[in-house]
Inverse folding.
């Protein structure tokens, strides 16, 4: 068995040449690595028909720095790091790039907001949130504690301890 061609990316489409048979198009299904040397011990392949659509998982990659992070002190949080798409094996995208430069605090990008490609169809729910900008939790906690301290009385009430004095 010899690898003739490989398309770089997560879902690698490979042409295998097997002795006694013609070229076969496959996807890597599973790879077993040696835990110490990281050498490939075993690989499983999935034979694909180039004229039939398949479902694959592709990673989400963000481009740019969100306005809410840069100017408002927020944090860009990934809600989903990958989505499932349906496409022909030759049209498998390497990744889904999303531009986050216009995101402010408490804004996000859903799958339906992303421009799709006519070569693939999303299988993941279009209402799925991909990324959003949130305020850091430490700042939220500090603000809540400051608000609670302002609501508390300035001096604690002193409770007298001991026996009551008898009145006359």
């Amino acid at each position: 068995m010899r690898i003739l061609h490989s398309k770089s990316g997560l879902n690698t489409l490979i042409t295998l040449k097997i002795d006694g048979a013609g070229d076969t198009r496959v996807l890597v299904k599973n790879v077993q690595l040696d835990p110490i040397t990281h050498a490939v011990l075993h690989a499983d392949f999935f034979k694909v028909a180039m004229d039939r659509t398949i479902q694959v998982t592709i990673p989400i990659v963000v481009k740019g720095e969100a306005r809410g992070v840069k100017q408002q002190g927020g944090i860009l949080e990934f809600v989903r790091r990958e989505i499932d798409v349906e496409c022909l094996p030759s049209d498998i995208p390497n990744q889904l790039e999303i531009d986050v430069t216009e995101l402010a605090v408490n804004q996000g990008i859903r799958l339906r907001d992303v421009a799709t490609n006519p070569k693939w169809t999303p299988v993941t729910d279009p209402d799925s949130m991909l990324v959003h900008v949130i305020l850091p939790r430490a700042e939220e906690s500090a603000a809540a504690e400051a608000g609670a301290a302002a609501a508390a009385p300035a001096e604690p009430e002193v409770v007298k301890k001991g026996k009551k004095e008898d009145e006359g």
Summary: The CA atoms of residues 2 and 151 lie 73 Å apart. The first helix runs from residue 67 to 70. Residues 1-9 have pLDDT under 50 and may be disordered.
